[in-house]
Amino acid sequence: MALIVENGSGMQTAESYISESDADAYFAKRGSPSAWTALSSSNKESALRYATVTLDGMYEFEGDITQLLQALSWPRSDATDWEGRTIVSTSVPQRVKDATCELALLHLTEALNSSFARDGAIIREKVGSIETEYSEAAGAETSLPVIDRIIGGLGYRRSGVTGRSIRA
Question: Taking a C-beta distance cutoff of 8 angstroms, is the pair 160, 119 a contact?
Answer without folding.
Answer: no
